[in-house]
Structures are given as structure tokens and as C-alpha cells.
Hints:
Blueprint lengths: L2 H5 L7 H17 L7 H10 L6 H11 L4 H7 L2 H6 L1
Helix pairs in contact: 2-3, 2-4
Amino acid sequence: KDQRRELGPDRPLLPATMAMKYMGAYLMAVIGGNETPSVADVKTILEAGGIEVDEAMLAKVVERMEGKTVHELIAAGHGKFAACG
């Protein structure tokens, strides 16, 4: 499903907006007990929900999470999450 169509043909999705589904799946993996989810882990979650995956965007999100813990980012503030997308 083309997500741009959901917002309208003249309103392309911003990278941060697109990254939110990857961050959401990343957080689901962490909640499930995986402190450092891989691209494959996040992709599995998204595909299980029937969500199309942009490999480059997903890789960027996971790369930006390297060396960080979700708990630290939550404590630092939501602005840190936006920086990951």
C-alpha cells in the first residue's frame, strides 16, 4: 500500500514520519526482551503485520540506535527518538 496516497498525492511522507514505523517495531522488539534488535528482527515484526519495509530506512534507524539503549533515550527525551529517523 502506498503510504503517500494516505496523506494525499501532493503530500509526500517526510523521512521522520516514515521512520516512526521502524522505531515502533524496534521498541516492540525491546519490550519483547531483545535489547539490541537487528534489522532482521525489526523486519520480521513489520512483515508479520503486513507492513512494507524500506530496507535503507530500516538500516539507518537500526544504525543510529547502535550504542544506545531505548531506556536512556526515553529518559533523555522524545527528541532523541526523532534524531534516530
